[in-house]
Amino acid sequence: MNVHVGAEAFARFEARPLTPRIGAELYGVDLSQNLDDALIADIRDALLKYKVIFFRDQQITAEQHIAFARRFGDLEIHPATPKGQENPEILRITHNAKNKGQENFWHSDVTWREEPSLGSILRAIDLPAVGGDTLFSDMVAAYEGLSDKMKAFCCGLTAVHDIARVFARRLGKDPKELHEKFPPMEHPVIRTHPETGERLIYVNTAFTSHIKDLSREESDWLLKHLYAQANLPEYQCRFRWAPGSMAFWDNRACQHYAASDYWPNVRVMERVTIAGDRPYFEPQDN
């Protein structure tokens, strides 16, 4: 294997980092094949290290997409998935002249669940000639960039996450109706990653409504400050999609932003989401 400068050679693939902090393209993996447990373990190690990993030139079916994701855990069915869909594990995200992209804000998927997602695997189906990149931001680096006093203040705080903030309008439902099945959930503002032990910022512009036990003014100010950390280019990578491209990101460790710069052109993606566990904060790390 000819390893590029700055790349890391795993046993059976090469990881080429996009930036010093986050993101790597993996070369030497064919997701259409049956992958053994050792290779899956190495892919998981790469995910934990880089927080988002990318695959190029993958010619796979929807069923193979699902099967690959299932190697990392149980799969979720998103409430936006149409009933009766052949593969309910797949969330199809279609944008065109009549439906402009709406994911152009920093967020982590499904933090409104009691046990939010471990990760998401996104596959390009139909792409604009140019545009429609996805950006990712390292929330571990974002936490580490806070002052020591701000870290101490945020550790132990709890935030409320609400599905209705985004999906009441998109699904055409009353918030109360959504809350019957998906009530607002409380998660730590600073989360401990369950596999790496790293601390990270775990609030996002999409689903976080407020921080408990603070006044509305205090909560709004602090959330604005924490949200802004995702905007720093030093914490980010940017992925340019191509036919056959796939992205696999750790929702526990990073946030993403889908650039909506291609309207009125068509962009179609398919996402499979891996279930996670309940977020927690481990105070013994002090």
Task: Give a short summary of the structure.
By secondary structure, this protein is an alpha+beta fold. The protein has seven helices and 16 strands. Helix content is 22%, strand content 26%.
Count of helical stretches: 7
Mean pLDDT: 95
Sequence of strands across the biggest β-sheet? 1-2-3-4-14-6-16-5
| General shape | globular
How would you describe the overall organization of this protein?
With 286 residues, the chain is of the alpha+beta class. The protein is built from 7 helices and 16 strands. The chain has helices at residues 37-50, 62-70, 139-144, 148-154, 164-171, 175-181, 216-228, and strands spanning 8-9, 14-17, 24-27, 52-55, 90-95, 119-126, 134-138, 158-161, 185-188, 190-192, 199-201, 208-211, 236-239, 246-250, 254-258, 267-274. Strands 1-2-3-4-14-6-16-5 form an 8-stranded mixed sheet, covered by helices on one side. The longest helix has 14 residues, at 37-50. It is globular.
Fold topology:
Blueprint: E1 8-9, E2 14-17, E3 24-27, H1 37-50, E4 52-55, H2 62-70, E5 90-95, E6 119-126, E7 134-138, H3 139-144, H4 148-154, E8 158-161, H5 164-171, H6 175-181, E9 185-188, E10 190-192, E11 199-201, E12 208-211, H7 216-228, E13 236-239, E14 246-250, E15 254-258, E16 267-274
Parallel strand pairs: 3-4
Antiparallel strand pairs: 1-2, 2-3, 4-14, 5-16, 6-14, 6-16, 7-13, 7-15, 8-9, 8-12, 10-11
Helix pairs in contact: 5-6
